[in-house]
Amino acid sequence: MKVNKWIYIALALLLGGFGVHKFYAQKPISGLLHLAFVWTGIPHIIAIISAILTIFKPGDAQGNINV
Asked: For residue 1, how many other CB atoms are within 10 A of its CB?
């Protein structure tokens, strides 16, 4: 699934604990797991790591990446 790199990063940093970036990337199971465990704080950490790793992925001419 191709998504815009910068939108994905912004969603991961701002709303990543709720799994919004996973829903944006058409990964509803991962998004639901983020929602289920949001009270632990672990999804927030995973989302920050995901955003950092995404920064280093090369995008195409339109700024999209494969997730």
From this structure: 10
Residue 35: what residue type?
Answer: L
Tell me the HSE value of 38 on the side-chain side, using a 13 A CA sphere. 12
Cα(13)–Cα(55) distance, rounded to whole angstroms?
12
- Give me the count of residues in the chain: 67
63: left (phi over 0), alpha (psi -120 to 50) or beta: left
Per DSSP, what are the bridge partners of residue 66? 2
How far apart (Å, rounded) are the C-alpha atoms in residues 11 and 9? 5
Q: Which pTM was predicted?
A: 0.92
Q: Are 40 and 53 in contact (CB under 8 A)?
A: no
How does pLDDT run across 11-43, given as a tens digit for each residue? 999 999 999 999 999 999 999 999 999 999 999
